[in-house]
Specification:
Dna Ligase, domain 1, Rossmann fold, 332 residues, 3 domains, globular
Length: 332
C-alpha cells in the first residue's frame, strides 16, 4: 500500500537564540538529519513523503498538499498544550497521524497532571507539589532532599546539576530562578535515592516493553546522580548506558510493570518512553513519560534502547508507523 505521508516537526535551525532566552531554549527541537532519516525509512517502504514542518503555515501546506497520514514528531511552540496543537489540528482536518492524541500529549507535558493520573491507578510516584509562585513553597510538606524541575517542559530543560535540593534556602533560590527564567510552573518532588532507568514502550491494545536502560552518571553514586542538561550534552563522556541493565529479574519485572501501567493509565499510543527511579525500598517510582521521544539516528534514549535490543533504526521507525496504520484500520 503506497501512501502520501507528511512529516510534522520543529527544527532548531528555524529559531534563533535570543539574549534573554535560557541556554536550553531550543533543546526540544529537532535537527534536519532526524527528519531526513525518518523520510528515508518511509520512502524505503514505497511511500511518497512530504516534509510539512510545524509552524503556522502548516494549515496552508496541508490544503495545498493533502496527505493520507502524518508522522508527527512536532514539539509545538507555546504553552503547556503545545505538543497537542498539531495533533488537534490534524484531528480537526480528519487527517490520521502517528502517536498519542491531544489529551494525552497535554496531560503528559504537565508533569503534575501526569503524576495525579498515575497516582489514581496506585502507581508509585514521588510526593510532590506544583509551584506557580514562590509563596507556594510556604508550608511545604515534603521530605528533603528534593528535586526541582519545570512542570511543563521536557528534554531536561531547566534541569541542572544543582536541581537536587537539600535545604529551604536553596529551594527558594532555585525555584525563584526557574520561575523568572522560564514560562512554566515548577514541580518540586521528593528525590528518590537510587538508580535511574528509562523504558521504551511500543504498541496499543497490547503494548510491550522494547527495552529497559539504566542511566549511570560516571563517577557519581546513584543517590547523587542527576541526569541534567550538562550531563546530557556530554553524554558520550559522562554517561554509561546499560541495556539491558545488570539487575535482578524481579526488579526488572517491577520496572517494566510500572512503565506499562503508566503507559496504559495515560492512554499513550504507538510509542512512549517512561522515566523511572528505584528507591531504597527497591520500589520503582514513576517520574515522567514522554510520548514524543526523540528519534535522532545519532543519539536519543529510545533509539539507543532499540539498538541495544537488536533493532536497527529502520525497524523502530517502521514499527511506530505500522502501529498507527493499524489503529486506523489500514492493513500493512
Amino acid at each position: 500500500m503506497k501512501l502520501k505521508v507528511g512529516i510534522t516537526y520543529n527544527l532548531k535551525k528555524d529559531f534563533s537564540q535570543q539574549e534573554n532566552q535560557p541556554i536550553d531554549f531550543l533543546e526540544e527541537f529537532d535537527a534536519e538529519e532526524t527528519i531526513d532519516a525518518i523520510r528515508r525509512v518511509l520512502e524505503g517502504e514505497g511511500h511518497d513523503v512530504i516534509k510539512l514542518g510545524g509552524d503556522a503555515g502548516l494549515i496552508d501546506r496541508l490544503r495545498r498538499t493533502p496527505v493520507d497520514i502524518v508522522f508527527n514528531i512536532a514539539e509545538g511552540l507555546h504553552g503547556r498544550n503545545r505538543e497537542a496543537h498539531i495533533p488537534a489540528l490534524l484531528e480537526f482536518l480528519n487527517i490520521p497521524y502517528t502517536g498519542s492524541d491531544p489529551l494525552t500529549l497535554s496531560l503528559t507535558l504537565d508533569k503534575a497532571m501526569a503524576k495525579r493520573i498515575v497516582m489514581s491507578q496506585n502507581i508509585p510516584t514521588p510526593r510532590f507539589k506544583k509551584v506557580e509562585k514562590v509563596e507556594d513553597l510556604h508550608g511545604l510538606d515534603l521530605r528533603y532532599p528534593l528535586f526541582v524541575k519545570l512542570c511543563h517542559e521536557g528534554s531536561s530543560k531547566g534541569v541542572r546539576l544543582d536541581s537536587k535540593i537539600s535545604d529551604a534556602q536553596s529551594l527558594r533560590e532555585k525555584t525563584t530562578g526557574l520561575l523568572e527564567t522560564y514560562d512554566s510552573p515548577v514541580l518540586v518532588e521528593e528525590f528518590i535515592k537510587g538508580p535511574e532507568f528509562t523504558v521504551g514502550i511500543l504498541g496499543n491494545e497490547d503494548p510491550f516493553v522494547l527495552g529497559v536502560m539504566q542511566i549511570e552518571i560516571k563517577g557519581r553514586a546513584p543517590e547523587e546522580s542527576v541526569y541534567s542538561l550538562e550531563i546530557k550534552r556530554e553524554w558520550e563522556e559522562k554517561v554509561r548506558y546499560h541495556c539491558p541493565p545488570s539487575i535482578g529479574q524481579d526488579l526488572l519485572r517491577k520496572i517494566e510493570e510500572v512503565a506499562l501501567r503508566s503507559y496504559r493509565a495515560l492512554e499513550c499510543r504507538d510509542v512512549s518512553r517512561v522515566d523511572i527511579r528505584v528507591g531504597e525500598d527497591r520500589t520503582p517510582y514513576f517520574l515522567e513519560i514522554n510520548p514524543l521521544p526523540g528519534l535522532s539516528p545519532v543519539y536519543g534514549d529510545l533509539v539507543m534502547i532499540a539498538r541495544s535490543m537488536g533493532w536497527d533504526y529502520d525497524r523502530l521507525v517502521k514499527t511506530i508507523f505500522h502501529y498507527a496504520l493499524k489503529r486506523y484500520g489500514w492493513t500493512e
